[in-house]
Amino acid sequence: MSSRHPDFPSEEQHLAGTLDSMVRRILELEDGLADVGADEDTAFVQRLDNEAEAQQLSVHVDAPYFGAMVVRAGGKTSKLYLGRYPYYDKAGRYTVSDWRSPVGQLFYTQDTRWKKGEVHLKRQLDIKKRELVRVTDLYAREGVNEVSAREDVLLQRLGEGATGGMRDIVSTIQPEQDALIRHPGHRPLVIQGPAGSGKTSLLFHRIAFLAFDGRQEGALDPRNTLVLVPNRVLAGYARRVLPDLRIEGVQVVTPEDWMAEQLRLNVEVTDKTLTLLLGTAERELKRRAWLRAKALGDARMLDVLRAGIVRRYRESLGSERFESSVTVNFEEYTVGLDGPALSEILDDIAPRSLLSGLREAFVRRLVERGWQDLEALGVSDGAYRAAKSQLEYDAAKLMGRAFRAASPITEVRRLLREPGELAAAARGILSEARVKALLTPDPAAYLPSARTGSVDTLELPLMLAVKAITEGFGRKSASGARPYDHILVDEGQDLSPLLYRLLSDAAQAGSITVAGDINQGIHGYRAISFWTEALEQLRTSPDDQVHHLQRTYRSTRQIVGLASQVARSFARDEALEAVAVPRDGQQVSVLIRGSGADRAAAAVQDALKSGFANVGVILRHGRHAEALARALGERDVHAQVIDTQHKVYGGGVVVMPANLTKGLEFDAAIVVGADESSYPGDVEYETRLLYVAVTRGMHALWLIPDGELHPLLRPQVVGA
Question: The whole model's pTM is what?
């Protein structure tokens, strides 16, 4: 399983032939860019296609494939090579198949038989900078322990350094990951996995698979795909992997940014409840704030808002009358509907899809009803266009009078301020306890930091619900709102049941993938408490269940053991305890001597001397990041500062708060403030953040407490 493999020379020769074929193809494409021998329009399109193909081949020529299989089908034995990018050699000798193809699936599983034949050999080929480094047989008919061989290849990959970008897992996708990547695109998929189990990478490889035009279901358009990630740092970080997976045009945003875009808001979004929960010792105030936040995120709030809006619209329609007159062949025809008939139309359309909204649906149904009445009066089909135009005009006038427009934020705040109206809207939908929690004055409104003109993060899903009910929402297109081909959610444990209900309407039926770790849920007051709360909103069949990943690939056993110790203090039954791959590293170290800056600088220097290029210095609060970075600079350690979501991590040494590190990984992590004063043990939000912080390192972890080490970290670390 090294350069001594008996087939190494022949594989090296095949690689040389493949590279020669690809380089010649690239030169042909580039030489043909100026003149493709066609009319001007066709030539222009052909040049663009040639240029795109040349660029793609140039990116992948350094490592054109990573695997090989010998398969026998129809009495013929063939050898296939698998890569990230397919290449079709004109002679057929050096062809590379796409990893997403059906035959490619055989490489990732332990299956050796398929409907067309059987597999005789599976082989991993490590290629770096156009040179063959290693040949490893994963399966051979003569007898190779496939499980053990895959583990050896995986550990080799995991021992490599972080890249400053998202880890490429194409060559080492594990069987359980492959099954989730290839899960049917029209069925909701909810994945629970511990930190480091590859959830984020899995999501993006799933997009690549769903966009593969060789799928039987039909490929989705990446431009019609939405990906929600927890913060802007991860959004920028994640986009770097997409070109390598041949995915262009995917919208990658935070849930807050997506909702603000849907609402056309350009205001500051705050989290007053979190500030209150962390900033006050008054337990009763905290309890009321928590209950109110959970009530606002209840999925049934969509029904409450709809009932309130429909009730108000119905009251307005009660005093209205719709009339429309059409002249056909010099004869006038008039149709009319009174208040009860208009209310009947409203009640009929209210429960339907949110994509179009009540306003558009009401006008459309009113026009349909008006035309039916005109036909009954003898108006012929030839007058339909003129009649429709007049009916739409008169329906719009009625809507302007009866459906008085109010901004979503005004609508939400008005409903929550008027107890009688809220109680009426919630009747038969919410329990008395939920209504009482909603009617509790916002405890966070009295915070000194509360700013006018801002929007609270708790309000955004409610505002989006109002917009959905009245105007519709979804993917923007030339013909109006349309459902997304697929929606993928990373760190899905931090979304509310209400937002999940809205997302289920914003996507094609069942086309949602959610990944997260319930143990990393740091926003329990405004998010789901159990995955079943999300699945209830997304489920299309009783067979839709939560899928579990248990292995964690990111960190050494020493780091995983410490992280599991922290997680046990708050772990949910839904989250299986992480199982580390059998990869050992140095012991987790705690530095206790010297100033905090001296210890942090020493840890960074040790990490760099150990060959770790990407080092994360993690603090509890972003407001301390600049000062620490300056102190490190005075000690000859240069570090980038990421203290807001607007900055992008590009590798190297970085100082950043724990909440912005979700989804990121570093060769080495240094947790500054690994103590109870930074992460109070009696506040679950804080212990979950501590869990996030200690799970970022791949190979090494240093802990720097201010005083005593945090109790949850004590048993497994060694002093230094």
Answer: 0.86
